[in-house]
Amino acid sequence: MNKKLVSPSLKRGLTFGIVMIIFVLIDLDVMVATMLSKLFGANVIRGSIPDVGFMVLFLILFGMFVGWSTSSDDAKPTTKLFQALVAGLTLGVVLGLFDLILNQLIVTGTDVRKYLAALAPESIRLFLFDQGAISPLLHLGLFTVASLLGSLMKILLKSESASRFFKGVKSGYQGLQAKAQANTPNWVKKYGKFLLFLLIGLLAFFLPRIWGSYNNYVVGLVGLYVILGIGLNIIVGLSGQLMLGFAAFFAMGAYSVALLNAPLPHGIMLGFWPSLLIGILMAVVAAVLLGLPVMGMRGDYLAIVTLGFGEIIRILLKSDLLTSFTGGPRGIQDIRGPTLFGQSFSSDIDYTYIILVVMVLSIFIYKRLERSRTGRAWLAVKEDTKVAQATGVNIMTNKLLALCLGAAFAGLAGGIFAARNQFTGPNDHQLMVSMNILSILIVGGVNSIPGIILGAFTLKGLPEILREIENYRLLVFGGLLVVMMISRPEGLWPATRPNIEKDEGNKLKENGAPGEGGLND
Amino acid sequence: MTDPIIQVKNVSKIFGGLTAVNQVDIEVPEKHIYSIIGPNGAGKTTLFNCISGFYFPEKGEVLFYGDPIQGLSTNLVAWLGISRTYQNIRLFSNLTAVENILIGLHPNLKTNWFEAIIHTKRFQKEESGSVKEALRLLDYVGLKGYGDFLAKNLPYGLQRRLEIGRALANQPKLLLLDEPTAGMNMNETAEATHFIKRLRDELGITIILIEHDMKVVMGISDRISVLDYGTKIAEGNAAEIQANPRVIEAYLGPGGAALSEKYKKQRLSNAKSN
Amino acid sequence: MENEIRPPRRYKRSKLPKLVRWIFGLIVLSYFFWRLYTVIIVQNEYTPDIWVRLLISGLVIGGVYSLIAIGYTLVYGILRMINFAHGEVMMIGTFAGYFVFEATNAIRFTSSTGEITSLSNAQPFLSILLAFIVGMTVAATSGFLLEKIAYRPLRKAPRLIPLISAIGASIFLQNLAQLLFSPLVRDYKNPDLIARGQGWAITVAGARLTIPYTGVLTFSLSIILMFALYTMVRKSKLGKSMRAVAADKSTAALMGIDVNGVISQTFIISGMLAGAAGVMWGLHNGLVYYYVGFLPGIKAFTSAVLGGIGNIPGAMLGGMLLGMIESIGPTALGISYQLKDVLAFVILIIILIFRPSGILGEVLSEEKV
């Protein structure tokens, strides 16, 4: 047979084999099987082993995916099947060999958990379908058949008639959509947006009261990260300064609220709102102090210096030097929450309201900044600093302004965060926090508000909701970042540039005569 | 003759041991088109950079309306009314054409970030005014209908025009054009030449031009100076430059003048014998 | 259009940022000198042997930092990207060495003198060599795969994209190691010959102190490796191609250099150095866990920037300097040892303020317009 045909499929089978082996070694296979059983309505208790059928189902799905992805798009059906066959066989052989080792472990009763922590005997048995020595053959057969199935599925779904079918569905849908558009009464067109906002507002008001404190916690977390994301976006996305120590500004806000508003160590009890304001101010001051000396540095140097700044702040908060002032590694407890009109306003529902309102306000401010002279100057600086300056943009002030405004958002989010948790400590402000915020931006889409919301939900909300995968969530998070960068570097919801010319044209059409005026009169 | 808008007096720029620009004097009267020509590496772009503030000349002065501007940072130079384009186009490539021009308008606008957030009357007025102005300029440089294209997606010729549009947004008194017709075909070049003339005639902008295309240079320049190895070797109008033996030598190498003389005679005698 | 003339403002290029920087730097520097003066001259409570001990530990840590920093610098020089996952490559090397020592320690037999001994004690040189070879190979392989999977598809992307991919890879590898080997902190089983805490006893100014064997091994080996690498980059064909690719990828490709191959080899070499550093780290500090590569990685990157990123002697110098600062600095300045990282970063910021391209980095000429 053609070598060009065989060797990529072989490689693919081998790669997926190694991936599956890693799955087994970290017990991810059992986790997926458990999730599948949950999907089918089984009652899952933590640490329980699912039915063997779900493991079979997972392996079949895996094999089908291998077959699907191995069959090249432009090949003939027979070639596709052949490719899938080779890949499936390779996968089966690799795992078969691995099974032999696993089976040996079971037979001899060796416990390898001292070194490979996740490899429990029950998990191994489940993976081997509890069939002992014949499980390699079972796996070989299963993967080959599943891979062929996957390939077959691709052939069927991507065939001419199938694509014609999908096209038909699509055009039908579009036709319906156009019809619906045409039939929409005028008042919907006019007030639709307003009604939609009203609906969202009502939902935002009532849902936190209904859906319980856990959901409030998750929504609050996502909201805080949206605020942080917007702040960092002003620095990284708009003005193009790579900032890796954003958590330092977050810490400024959190510690300001904590120190001014907790019984220990100072007992100042200034109240939430004024201390939040001071927190924002402190973050801005920190930004100026950091910004003035380092503003002129090139991108990567700026990155490492800001990273260093973040670490300095965190270590100082933790150190003995400031223990009497900041509570040291133990942090600050019992931070008092906000009040509104003399009444306590610090239940989980209230915090959700506060965060949602602040989030909407942040989005509003961001939008207005972006569509202004300042926002355009930032974008110009990001695109080409020297040319921006030669076009009349003052680089220093604009960069510093971006840093300060971004820091202000971080201080704001930090203050709310500390009060909501009633606690803050050095570990809330680790380097990983800065990295997470940056990742939210990149995964969601730089300069795109829906992107940032989506990113915050994907990276902070989903892992909270899918508690079962708790152990694996950082692994998945890391892998997701790499995959996203390779397959969709512009983000989940990429930003678009405004169509100023078109909008202006529409405006003129609506207003009738073209308006006179402009700077040159 | 009006006062010179810009005077370059005895300017030298030295990189390490290399003198890129050597004691160059240039004087450009208002509403003139002034060309700088010379072989590659003669220091033309370096001179531009000295005028527009990218470089700080080691020696000499640059006077704009009689006031020294050397050493001012580029944004102040732009604010004073000197705009420029670049040899290899440098647009803000991920922004739309209109946005590029809006950024060019930056020095003329006054509102700050806070006004932008609370949308003051002044901000709204300025913003809508600047959008109108940007669209007007877009139309002026012939990019109507391309306003919402990303700059990097525009065809080459239009990118050149957009760059000029961005430079014009600043309402410059002096426009520095660095090889505006590079990479263009004959039709485009003719169009661009006409356009540059229009800029001077309609807007009253003084233009300094770096150009390799002699047809363009000889066609529209009021005055031309020639740089070679950083030194100004000749200045004059088109006819004077064409006749200058040092210029010919700079382009054709030593002995070039004699050679060109010889060919001229040959052509003449050929014409006679025919 | 009215051609009114705006008057030029009569001021030169704004000196304010520069001034602020210098004032900031001078304040910190004078604070340093004041502290140094107080601790060394006024208080004078440390005997010379303490300084020698600190110097030794600084050199050892510095050697490890230098090796990792070279990896950052090589990759940065060629791809202009921060290989954020480089610390994790080192962690993988540390784990590989750990398993080699576990294995050699588990193989037991009766020696000629009749006592039961393990392979690692009977053949210490062999087992150390084996640990380094395995550690370097595994780390080099992971560096190679890292580049191939996470960075190669992003060769032409804007700079932020590979950085995020690198951050993702770093998180992924850390957590993979945690899931595979559990979050436990494990002990490195050194052969008895170079047991931790053992060393040559010397006398300095009347006080006894030991030079640890592991420290000597670490320092000398890192010097040898650095020297080998430097010679390789200067002299060998691969070194020349690496420099060519660093200067200009497309021109290098036109000259017939296999750019992808050279980049892969660069990652392999930096992975090998990180792997060696990892095994040394394990032997000297004795601890291995999934997070072990993170801090040394950040520190090594800091040293690379300190010395001038993209510059190999700079990375060596920066690593040594950072090791020294960390070990001697807190004592010399009379501040808490907890603040050694703060000190390292403050020194970095100061140096970048006064020499924006690091100590040995070339001052980049202004980008040609």
Account of the protein in words:
The complex is a heterotrimer of chains A (521), B (274) and C (369). Chain A is mostly helical and 521 residues long. In chain A, 72% of the residues lie in helices and 2% in strands. Chain A has 2 domains: 3-164, no CATH class; 200-496, no CATH class. Chain A has helices at 3-25, 28-39, 52-70, 77-108, 121-127, 135-157, 160-183, 186-210, 212-238, 247-259, 272-294, 299-318, 323-326, 348-370, 373-383, 385-390, 395-421, 431-444, 449-465, 473-487, 500-511, and strands spanning 332-333, 339-340, 343-344, 423-424. Chain A is globular and about 70 Å long. Mean pLDDT of chain A is 84; it is low at 513-521. Chain B is of the alpha/beta class and 274 residues long. Chain B has 2 domains: 1-81 and 172-243, 3-Layer(aba) Sandwich (Rossmann fold); 92-170, no CATH class. Helix content of chain B is 44%, strand content 23%. Chain B is built from 11 helices and 10 strands. In chain B, strand 7 (174-178), helix 7 and strand 8 (206-210) form a beta-alpha-beta unit. Chain C has 369 residues and is mainly α. Chain C has a single domain (46-354), classed as ABC transporter involved in vitamin B12 uptake, BtuC (Orthogonal Bundle). Helices cover 69% and strands 6% of the residues of chain C. Chain C is built from 13 helices and 6 strands. Chain C has helices at residues 16-43, 48-79, 86-106, 119-122, 124-151, 160-181, 213-235, 237-247, 249-254, 259-285, 294-307, 312-333, 340-354; strands spanning 108-110, 116-118, 186-187, 199-204, 207-212, 287-288. In chain C, strand 4 and strand 5 form a beta hairpin. In chain C, helix 7 (213-235) runs antiparallel to helix 10 and helix 11 crosses helix 12 (312-333). The two termini of chain C are 31 Å apart.
Mean pLDDT of chain B: 86
- Output the number of helix runs of chain B: 11
Q: Under CATH, the topology of chain C is which?
A: ABC transporter involved in vitamin B12 uptake, BtuC
CATH topology of the largest domain in chain B: Rossmann fold
Distance between the termini of chain B: 46 Å
Can you identify the CATH class of the largest domain in chain B? Alpha Beta
Straight-line N-to-C gap of chain C: 31 Å
Helix content of chain C: 55-70%
CATH architecture of the largest domain in chain B: 3-Layer(aba) Sandwich
Counting copies of identical and different chains, the oligomeric state is heterotrimer
In angstroms, what is the radius of gyration of chain B? 21 Å
Q: Unreliable segments of chain B (pLDDT under 50, ≥5 consecutive)?
A: none
The averaged pLDDT of chain C comes out at: 84
For the report, how would you describe the main beta sheet of chain C? 2 strands, antiparallel
| Radius of gyration computed on alpha carbons of chain C | 24 Å
What characterizes the major β-sheet of chain B? 6 strands, mixed
